[in-house]
Specification:
Helix 4 packs across helix 5, helix 7 packs parallel to helix 13 and helix 9 packs parallel to helix 11. The chain has a single domain, classed as Orthogonal Bundle (Ammonium transporter fold), CATH 1.10.3430. 66% of the residues lie in helices and 0% in strands. It has helices at residues 2-22, 28-62, 68-95, 137-158, 165-188, 192-196, 204-222, 243-260, 272-300, 305-320, 328-351, 360-378, 399-429, 436-441, 443-448. It is built from 15 helices and no strands. By secondary structure, it is mainly alpha-helical. The chain crosses the membrane at residues 39-59, 71-94, 141-159, 166-189, 201-222, 243-260, 272-300, 307-326, 332-349, 361-380, 400-426.
Length: 462
């Protein structure tokens, strides 16, 4: 009973916070709706924020003990960077009224004119693209901020164990302040992809593939970790040092995804869409866990825990775009495919000598892309009230699938090219990679002057 009491107290506190907004409108029904929607949006945003813990636990656990402090520091500071850069410029670029490519009004410091929670035709302000939700401006801002922070966190895993701390900070600011908002404007800000008819409900492409493409560019310029590949070209396994934190982190992420996807309704409504999205999200994750376990067992000979964990994340990433547009049965199929894809994608990147210590490319880039395509394949028009049109497998032909392919290509080419440019400038000015000696000794001591497990002598996996 105690936990329910705490939850009710939180709800009451958020309603009190929302009361100045509610007082502007004397209609008690309208007041209640705005209050409930605001509580819902903020509560789910808090769940997504909590995912920072999950990413930190998964990434640090899958890497070596000598780099734990560095990885935790990156995962901790990245949300601070995202908070400032998204406030300074990112929000305006993404949601400001502008053209088909980026926002132009209310560009700096989210300072544009705004009369939220007014909606639709009643809205008068600089951020019309997000006037479909009837919550205060700062509720909209915070919910979108936690998504922006997730994109930068993905990059951290791809470039782990050899990136300079300062170089990662600078790139994260550029990613969240400029690159992420521009492609986000294309899809969620009323830009050219939205007008083309592309759909991405909660960010398989806008969030996850963007983080994946940016990370891929960084990994290519960094090169693999020392001794990752043998002279004959085969990959040398570098095992994570703490699978307990990996498992803990994955469960935190799974839990946080119930904010990520259902929260993207940004309103309560009658609750049916929220319930549907929660079930499709969970079903895809569960199916992907089973398919990744079976695939790893058949291909690798053992049910590798890292593959099982990444299978769950792959299913969650893949269902993020179509979660509101597909049936529960389709979400199961999407999850099964995602679980198989992630195992083979990990092996594929290793064959290309693209060193990704935590499998983030296989999870976020490959399955973020698949999630966008899944909309074009499995969507059923109006299943939760959104007129997407039917996907290919439900008689819709190639119209929706074509728009989704355009989104994959547009987001991918822009993010990868601009990331290569940004990483190259950073590399030329301040360098990207730590020294060979520092990498061998560990980034914890070299970059931060401390150890994660002080007082313990560790002999393995150094």
């Amino acid at each position: 009973m105690r936990k329910y009491g705490i939850f009710l107290l939180c709800v009451m506190l958020m309603l009190i916070i929302a009361s100045p907004v509610l007082a502007q409108d004397q209609d008690p029904i309208a007041n209640l709706k705005v209050g409930l929607d605001t509580v819902w949006v903020l509560f789910t945003a808090f769940l997504v924020f909590f995912m920072n813990l999950g990413f930190g636990m998964v990434e640090s656990g899958l890497c070596r003990v000598k780099n734990t402090v560095n990885i935790l520091a990156k995962n901790f500071i990245v949300f601070a960077i995202a908070s400032i850069s998204f406030w300074v410029i990112g929000w305006g670029l993404m949601f400001g009224n502008g053209n088909d490519f980026f926002g132009l009004q209310g560009l700096l410091f989210a300072s544009g004119a705004d009369n939220s929670p007014a909606m639709g035709d009643a809205y008068q302000g600089a951020y019309s693209a997000i006037s479909w939700t009837g919550v205060p401006l700062w509720a909209k801002f915070f919910f979108q901020l936690v998504f922006a922070g997730t994109a930068a966190t993905i990059v951290s895993g791809v470039v782990a164990e050899r990136i300079k701390f300062l170089s990662f900070i600078v790139f994260s600011f550029i990613l969240v302040g400029i690159m992420y908002p521009i492609t986000g404007h294309w899809v969620w800000g009323g830009g050219w992809l939205a007008k083309l008819g592309m759909w991405d409900f909660a960010g398989s492409g806008v969030v996850h593939s963007v983080g994946g493409w940016a990370g891929l560019a960084g990994a290519l310029l960094l090169g693999p970790r020392i001794d990752k590949y043998r002279k004959d070209g085969s990959a040398r396994p570098i095992f994570g040092h703490n699978m307990s934190t990996v498992t803990l982190g994955a469960l935190v992420l799974w839990f946080g995804w119930f904010g990520f996807n259902p929260g993207s309704t940004m309103g309560v409504g009658d609750g049916s869409a929220i319930a549907h999205i929660a079930v499709t999200t969970n079903t895809a994750a569960a199916a992907a866990i089973l398919s990744s376990t079976i695939t790893a067992w058949l291909v690798l000979g053992k049910p590798d825990l890292s593959m099982i964990v990444n299978g769950s994340l792959a299913g969650l990433v893949a269902i993020t775009a179509p979660c509101a547009f597909v049936s529960v049965g389709s979400s199961f199929i999407i999850g099964v495919i995602a679980g198989v894809l992630v195992v083979f994608a990990v092996l594929f990147f290793d064959k290309l000598h693209i060193d990704d210590p935590v499998g983030a490319l296989a999870v976020h880039l490959v399955n973020g892309t698949f999630g966008l395509l899944a909309v074009g394949l499995f969507a059923q028009d109006g299943i939760t009230g959104t007129a997407t049109g039917n996907g290919l497998f439900f008689g819709g032909g190639f119209k929706l699938l074509g728009a989704q392919i355009a989104g994959v290509l547009g987001i991918g080419v822009f993010t990868f090219v601009v990331s290569i440019i940004a990483w190259s400038i950073i590399k030329a000015i301040m360098g990207m990679r730590v020294s060979r000696e520092e990498e061998i000794r560990g980034l914890d001591l070299g970059e931060h002057g401390m150890e994660a497990y002080a007082g313990f002598q560790v002999f393995l996996n150094q």
